[in-house]
Specification:
Layout: H1 4-13, H2 23-41, E1 44-54, E2 57-68, E3 74-82, H3 94-119, H4 127-135, E4 139-143, E5 149-154, E6 162-168, E7 173-182, E8 189-198, E9 204-213, E10 218-229
Helix pairs in contact: 1-2, 2-4
Length: 233
């Protein structure tokens, strides 16, 4: 995702340590370049691997073949799912205890699936949501001393969350993305950190997203790999 527009804005602003560029300029450049990146990614298909862990123990892992359909929407086809077998317990405690345990497992599974789904509300960043944040006065542009540019969007998906996009001015690429948000209630704080990768033709993509739910000791990692041109076998 070449952010030439953002780099031009930075130069016009008089370098990172000085005044921040106007939000209108930054949003316009972000929207343009996010759109260009998605268009280039439509030429590819890749493998998405979602791994969910609880207490440091892997609970499930699934892989999907991902590509953009003719309507511009992402298509995800399951490639199979692997989940560690839970140890079989005895009958001690009776049926009531077993029922309680099964309910807790089901609640945890539901919570973990919600955590995995939350990632896709933030990654990749939605140009329309960025525009909404700017129009509502909830977007801030913060040039950094090292030459990077931080774009902060408050209330991006839900109240009191924060999406922060980092731009590497020298490489003209997205350098990082982080999110402070929550599941169900503000007390259920979660942190999302994203690492980007670059394909051979210069296309930027989301290489890995890691979501940590500290209150539940849950970690969800979504990795994208194996990019290849559509139709290539």
């Amino acid at each position: 995702m070449k952010l030439a527009g953002l780099i031009t804005v930075l130069v016009a602003a008089g370098a990172a340590a000085q005044s921040a560029p106007a939000p209108d300029q930054v949003v316009a450049a972000l929207k343009q370049n996010l759109g260009e990146s998605q268009k280039r990614l439509r030429q590819y298909e890749w493998i998405e691997t979602t791994t969910i862990s609880h207490g440091g123990e892997q609970k499930s892992q699934k892989q999907q073949r991902v590509y953009y359909g003719a309507d511009g929407m992402l298509v995800k086809l399951p490639l199979g799912e692997a989940a560690p077998q839970e140890p079989q317990g005895g009958r001690r405690g009776g049926r009531l205890k077993q029922h309680v345990i099964e309910n807790k497992k089901e609640d945890l599974k539901d919570y973990m699936e919600k955590a995995a789904g939350l990632i896709h509300q933030y990654v990749p960043p939605d140009p329309a949501k960025i525009q909404t944040a700017k129009d509502a006065g909830k977007l801030a542009v913060r040039p950094q001393p090292d030459g990077t540019l931080m774009v902060e969007c408050r209330d991006y998906v839900q109240p009191s969350d924060m999406l922060t996009i980092g731009v590497d001015a020298k490489a003209a690429l997205l350098s990082a993305l982080s999110v402070a948000t929550y599941l169900e209630k503000p007390e259920d704080a979660v942190a999302l950190n994203v690492r980007f990768g670059t394909l051979a033709d210069g296309t930027s993509y989301t290489a890995q997203s890691t979501l940590d739910v500290k209150a539940k000791n849950i970690r969800v990692v979504v990795a994208n790999s194996g990019h290849r041109p559509m139709g290539q076998r």
